[in-house]
Write the structure tokens for this entry.
Amino acid sequence: MLRGTECVQADKIEIIEEQMENNGICGENCVYCDEKALCKACKEDFFLFNGECRAFCPEGTYADLVTNTCVECQVGCYSCLDENSCTICHHGYGLKDEKCLEL
């Protein structure tokens, strides 16, 4: 299908048109959101958390650089660098080898 001077697939046109329609509804760092204005994908250097795009992930989560989402830390972990590296544990847990173990 021809769009302007560019040939693109029909399914890509639907996505482009949806993104253009959502531009005023979605947050400024959101690429695509649903009908409730909950973001589904963020611009580069932003991370998706509970339907919003954030520059930094909140405590209890870490930034997954592959999916551009904030992912929950392991059980008992208050703050972490990634899925395997806890830095601060919740009350009742102790830190050993970057893991939070129940006391």
User: Anything to note?
Assistant: The first strand starts at residue 2 and ends at 3. The two ends are 62 Å apart (CA to CA). The chain is about 15% helix and 45% strand.
